Amino acid sequence: MPVYSMTGYASVSSQPPAPSENTVASNASVTVELRSVNGRFLDLGFRMPEDLRGLEPALRELLTAKLKRGKVELRINSQRDNEGSWPQPQPEQMNRLSMLQDMVQGWLPKAAPLSVNEVLNWCKGGGSAVEKLDEAAMEAARQCVAGLLEAREREGEKLVAVLMERIGRLRELADAAEPILPAIVQRQQQKFLERWQEALASTGAAQTIPEENLRERALNEAAAYAIRIDVAEELARLRAHLEEIARLLQKGGEIGKRLDFLIQELHREANTLGSKAAALELTHISVEMKVAVEQLREQVQNIE
Fold this sequence. Notes:
Blueprint: E1 8-14, E2 29-37, E3 42-47, H1 56-66, E4 70-79, H2 91-107, H3 116-125, H4 129-177, H5 180-203, H6 211-229, H7 232-251, H8 256-276, H9 280-300
Parallel strand pairs: 3-4
Antiparallel strand pairs: 1-2, 2-4
Helix pairs in contact: 1-4, 4-7, 4-9, 5-6, 7-8, 8-9
């Protein structure tokens, strides 16, 4: 499955269905726009003319069936027949109006006859313009949702490329940190031995305590220090999180929330690595890791 970004835009214009033989051609049109940005949940907003407000439940159902996260705004702009242009009444329309007027006046003799303006407005509307515009709006909305999904998929492909590049960088940093720790422990062990001997020499204890016991005590202190600064577990967990992120990106689908959690765990491991850093080299690596993780987090915020 593809990875979808929560950022996208699509716009579709549509016209009512072709008129039948008994109606005049309509110049009405409707334009549907969809704008989507990142959000923790699915947040829908609608801006449309009041005469199309009845479509909101159907539009909401259409969007919730296709989108899972993001702040989405749907706008509908409609344009009816130009009020300045008068229609050309058709014979069928005039015959029908005449029959209806005779029927009404037969029941209501005092009813006023139709005026020219009323006749032209009736011919202009065609009796079903509103219904036809609703159909056009729904069709445009369906096409617009499909266009938005395509845009979000293209954006998602770009995000995956960026995320995989950052994952590769974090793996390089983890590989660089791993061989540094034994060298740090060895250097610290040598420092313990030197300082231990200096302390014993200054107090005169070296003359009463066997050298082998002194060396064993110094090595124990060095081992305890090595345990405190050991970051092997942190590096192992960091690599596991990176593998899981890469797997999710390859799988695709609705992975945004799971990626959010994994990024938090990556940040925690990088912080722990920095707090245990006993050498400048590890401190630099920890800072680089935090920068890469933050870059990952910024990009993951846009994934559905």
